[in-house]
Specification:
alpha+beta, about 40% strand, globular
């Protein structure tokens, strides 16, 4: 009898969430505090993964926020928010989605709170970063990779 229990259930667990690295710089202080505050804010995101063991991964979301004012960097804040996740019995596409969208979505609020706190401690006006749609970012990435692969295949 081929029963449905032969297929293992998808396994997902958060083992730990932690801040791996923090950097906050104000390279043009105190002069930046003597100017009218009208910064240009740039936000960069990156995601790295390391396999720690069977079905156990460290996912590191790097959030970098740069505030520039009149071509000078007012502050540069970088947070590497990490988590150790158990991601077992997943199909490759499902695992890729978990690593690149689901887990970063869990980590982002922690990183956003650390950035907000650091900016506040740097005595800059409050900075509330908007939520990020990691599912849409991952879907765009997959679509872009498919288009590149298709273009490569048509050239050969």
């Amino acid at each position: 009898m081929a029963d449905a229990n032969t297929e293992a259930e998808v396994e997902f667990a958060i083992q730990r969430i932690y801040t791996k690295d923090i950097s906050f710089e104000t390279p043009h202080s105190p002069a930046v505090f003597q100017q009218e505050w009208a910064p240009e804010i740039k936000v960069d995101l990156d995601n790295n993964v390391s396999e720690l063991g069977e079905s156990v991964y460290e996912i590191v979301l790097t959030l970098t926020v740069t505030a520039s004012h009149e071509e000078n960097v007012a502050f540069l804040c970088e947070v590497k928010q990490a988590g150790i996740f158990t991601l077992g019995h997943m199909e490759p596409a499902q695992l890729a989605h978990a690593i690149n969208a689901y887990c970063p979505n869990i980590l982002f609020p922690y990183a956003r709170e650390v950035v907000s706190s650091l900016v506040n401690r740097g005595s800059f006006p409050q900075l509330n970063l908007a939520p990020v749609n990691f599912d849409a970012m991952f879907a765009n990435y997959v679509e872009q990779m498919s288009a590149e692969e298709e273009a490569e295949n048509t050239q050969h």
